[in-house]
Specification:
mainly beta, 3 helices, globular, signal
């Protein structure tokens, strides 16, 4: 009986910690070029970041309202459900070199050890004038979970004369992390 209670407790804790959904709403007139990282905030690893593509491009005015938001349900299912899919992820488990894992790797699937021990934490990005290769000056940063820790340094709100961005997470029955970019 004691073993069953322990296993149930560990399972509940893992599910409470699991990554949850990620949603990027780009309401701005600029194209987003950036990456997305998830990690364990208690020990920094595992850490996961998109590898292919290395930079995700979410066009101007791409959001939930028009169905063009960058939405990730989880590492695996995003490949078939996201309009901006990630083919493989860079996974860091410790001091050893990082490895590349395909979107369908068992450790990345819902309930897998990496998925259960990471949360969406940050995005390093640069905004571009829509449809061009021209940077929007000053509209670049690392935005994410502003909870202080030794793993990342991010702010959860950023503002420039060319636009602003915010990062927040809503937890409840489901956990959803939002990254919103505004004009």
């Amino acid at each position: 009986m004691k073993k069953i209670v322990t296993v149930l407790g560990i399972t509940a804790a893992s599910l409470a910690y699991s990554q949850g959904m990620f949603m990027l709403n780009n309401y701005s007139p600029h194209d987003f070029h950036g990456n997305l990282m998830a990690m364990n905030l208690n020990g920094c690893v595992p850490a996961v970041m998109n590898n292919d593509p290395a930079s995700i491009i979410v066009p101007a005015n791409s959001h939930m309202g028009n169905g063009l938001a960058w939405k990730i349900d989880n590492y695996r299912d995003q490949f078939s459900t996201s309009i901006y899919p990630v083919t493989n992820w860079i996974v860091t488990l410790g001091p050893s070199p990082s490895t590349i894992r395909l979107w369908n790797n068992p450790s990345l699937m819902p309930g897998g050890v990496i998925a259960n021990n990471t949360k969406w934490t940050t995005s390093k990005f640069q905004m571009y004038y829509a449809g061009t290769g021209n940077h929007v000056v000053g509209f670049n940063t690392s935005l994410g979970n502003a909870t202080p820790n030794s793993c990342i340094t991010s702010v959860d709100y950023f503002s420039t004369p060319n636009g602003s961005a915010e990062w927040f997470t809503i937890t409840g029955t489901d956990t959803i992390t939002y990254f919103q970019i505004y004009p």
